[in-house]
Structures are given as C-alpha cells and as structure tokens.
C-alpha cells in the first residue's frame, strides 16, 4: 500500500514538473498577473490592502507554504503580504 501511494505521488510530481517546464518553454516567462484584479478591483480594494497581512492561499498543488514566498504562479504571489500560509 505504501509503495503504490509513493509511486503515484512520484508520478504526479514528475508530470507536474514536466507540464510547467513545457509552459515555461512555450511562454518564456510565467506570469500570474490576472490574479491581482480578482483580489483587488473586483472587490473594490487596493493592492496595498494586503500589505503586512498574513494570507492563507488555498489552491491546488504546492501553492501553500509557511514562511517564505509562495510559488511563482500562486494566486497570492503578487501581494506584499507579510506571510503566505
């Protein structure tokens, strides 16, 4: 049981990394600029609203990290928050 769970995780990680490398090769620079609108303007907020706040970024994959910057395409990567969890 442990072996099958381990191999399925490794399979997913391999294919996820392969996908993102292909996206980077196709696009050159990976961006997430569309998120800012949905976290600010859409709700009548300014980007400075998030300054020094602690954000919980719930997404798929390895987006959420405690202490330190989120992954480059994370929804909250553009913020100047104090911490992304």
Rg, alpha carbons: 16 Å
Total strand count, please? 2
N-to-C terminal Cα separation, in Å? 31 Å
Number of discrete domains: 2
Largest sheet: 2 strands, parallel
- Helix-strand topology string: HHEE
Specify the structural class.
Answer: mainly alpha
Mean pLDDT: 75
Please bin the fraction of helical residues: 25-40%
**Structure annotation, total helices:** 2
Portion of residues in beta strands equals under 5%
Segments where pLDDT lies below 50 for 5+ residues? 62-70
Q: Which strand order spans the largest sheet, edge to edge or round the barrel?
A: 1-2
- Using the alpha-carbon principal axes, give the shape: extended
Helix and strand topology:
Elements: H1 2-27, H2 34-39, E1 54-55, E2 83-84
Parallel strand pairs: 1-2
Short description:
The protein has 85 residues and is mainly alpha-helical.
Structure description:
The protein is mainly alpha-helical and 85 residues long. The chain is built from 2 helices and 2 strands. It has helices at residues 2-27, 34-39; strands spanning 54-55, 83-84. The protein has a two-stranded parallel sheet with strand order 1-2. The radius of gyration is 16 Å and the shape is extended.
What key attributes describe this structure?
mainly alpha, 38% helix, 2 helices, 5% strand, 2 domains, two-stranded parallel ribbon, extended, 85 residues
